[in-house]
Every structure is written in C-alpha cells, then in structure tokens.
Give the backbone structure.
Amino acid sequence: MPPIDVPAIRHQFPALSVTQDGRPVVYLDGPGGTQVPGRVIDAMTHYYRTMNANHGGRFLTSERSDAMLARAHEAVADLFNADAREVKFGANMTTLNFALSRSIGATLGPGDEVVVTRLDHEANVGPWHALAGERDVVVRTVEIREEDCTLDIGSLEAALSSRTKHVAVGLASNAVGTINPVREIVDRAHAIGASVSVDAVHFAPHGPIDVRELGCDYLLASAYKFFGPHVAILYGKRDALDRLPAYKVRPAEDRWETGTQDHEGIAGTLAAVEYLAEIGERFGAPFADALSRYSGRRLALKAGLAAIRATEMELFGRLSDGLEAVPGMRIWGIRDRARWAERCPTVAFRLGPTPPAHTAAALGRRGIFAWDGDYYATGLMERLGIAESGGAVRVGLVHYNTPEEVDRLIEALHELAR
C-alpha cells in the first residue's frame, strides 16, 4: 500500500470533480502545473475579503497583509530549510532567473564562463546565453547521455575550468524526469570558486528539498507546480544575495522583491505549504525517524514530501509497465527500476509514427490531459533529434493520481496503437 491514502485527500481538490462526456477527467498534465486544494482558493479569496492592501500602511488591512507576507516567507523557508530572509517572491521562475542572471552578469567580465546543461528547461539556459552578447561571457553546455537522458559527468568536468564563474543546473528534468546529482555538481563548482543556481521547479512537488544539504547558492521554484498559485520563489544564501548588485528603485525596502508583489498569490502559496505539512502530519510517520534532524513544520514538510515521493513512485511502476506493453511505444529517460531514485514520475514518449500533437489531442478527446511538444526543454529535444518533428508526448504523475487513471491512459494508448 502507498503511504498516502489517496482517496482520502482527493476530495480536497475541487478540480478533480470536473467531468468530460460524463466521466471524470484525468490530470496527467502535472509537469505543466498541478491542481490546487480548496484551502488555496479559500486563502486567496480570504485575502481579498479581509486584507487587500499594499505593503507598509499604518492601518488594519495593510498590517494584516504584511503579517500574512511574513508568515508566507517563514513557510517557504521551512519548505526548503532556509532562513525567511533568504526567500524572495516573484512573478515566475523565468522572470526571477532573468533578474538573478542580470545581477550575476554585472559581476562578470569578458572571457568569464557560465556553465549550463542540455537537460534543462530553457528558462535556466536562455538568461545565461543572453549574457554572452551583452558582456562577452562564454557559455558552455554540459551534454547528456542520450541512452538514458542523464547528464554526462565527463562533459561536466570538461566544461568546468578556472574561468568558470557560475553553474546553472536543474534539480530534475521537466521533460524526462531525470534527477541530477546536484550536490556533486555544487561541490565541483565550489571547488573552483564558482557559484551555483538550481532550477527546482520540476522536482518541488515530488520530494523534499533542503538547500543546506544541496549546498547551492541560489534555488528557484514555482508554487503552481506544488499545488499553489502562479507565484515564483527565489532562495539565495543571504550573503550571496547581499553581494550582488540589485536593480531596484530607491524607495524599495527589499533588494529583490521590487515593486508590489502578488499578495493574494502569496497567500495561496502559504496555504499550499500548509497543505504539504498536513500530508506529513497525516501520512509522514514512517519517514520521521530518518528525518529526526528536523522538527516542527520542517519535519512535517520533509516527511510529507517523502510520503508523496514513495506514493508517486509506486504508482509510476504501474505506469511504466503499462507503457512498455503498448505496441510501437518509444520512451526516453531512465527505464531501469533499480535506478528510479534518479528520476521523477514524469515520462516522455512517442506512439509509433503518430505526431505527438495528434496523440495528445486524441487523449484529450478521451478526457486524459497530457502535453506534447518540447515543454521548453528545447535543447534536449534538439539533442534527441525530435524537435522539428513535434517533440514527444509527456505525462506526469502527482500524488493525487490513481491506479484507475493510469489504467485509463494505457487503455487509450492501446486503442490508438491499434
């Protein structure tokens, strides 16, 4: 049995009651954004009803709003085992990463080098390439092992040098689910004096994250990928953030949260973190002993996400077996069960010669939601040689998915294969 009683938590997600042609729809589009529990919707509505005001006012609603913002910073700090002063909110990961890369870029000079990877989402690649033209910075790319879509560590070693000033790497691939050896990469980068930023957007809903254990200097995430609203998060070591030049107007109190934030979205993000903590309180006991270094909400969050990971990967076994049995199926990424610690429950595939867009549309007509294309993993799709022919179909599990939903997908793919 999976650690989480999935039927017991599904009722918290209003969107899971949506039907199409008389049947519940199947959300396998989680890698593009998850559904939200009702408490997130209620928190955003509650914000508008009771505390809708700008920051810093000497009156009731503004004071309530600022108190909520402080609680949200503390909650996200607990989620990532950081300090609340190291948590910054923003519009989306792409925008935050452009701000971060611009600030880091201001410290670089001609001939300095930045390392990115072929496996990453374009939001963790493009901002660094933009520096190449602006500041005469060299961008080097770590290649992949095509047979399993993992990073080629030999290529990483070749890319790092005394000229390397920064390394940008994903915690997990949003396309094929590969989990990267980030701690090893951080150690190698720090050994030569380079800083490291980590794109944790895809991994965040699938397992616990501890920025102290990762050792990274910066980490980015998106709340809408872990059951919250469209709000992004930047973590930065306090001294690292303080050292960088900030692009802000003079009155701004915070060097990174410049301008009015999405307060209602941040209220929803706080509620999403509280939901994950509740998962830990209800289902995290089997994992608590291994996480005894944490306490309070940090323990609940780590245990909850450990329970989520165990639940998802058990269901992923059913998905993997089912996909392997579909005639004409081609799958990218790690397929060896013995190596599933190196992957998330996200899979990219093609069904015979059928264009991925046609497969996704056919699934959509059956009420099964999946993505097609490159999902901004543009460099990876180009490297695999499938970018110009439509990329791949992508499905991804999260903890509210069920065996019955997986079976519906596999049944539909068998129909399409025939």
Q: What stands out?
A: The first helix runs from residue 6 to 10. The domain at 6-37+298-417 is CATH 3.90.1150.10 (Aspartate Aminotransferase, domain 1). The chain has two domains: 6-37+298-417, 42-273.
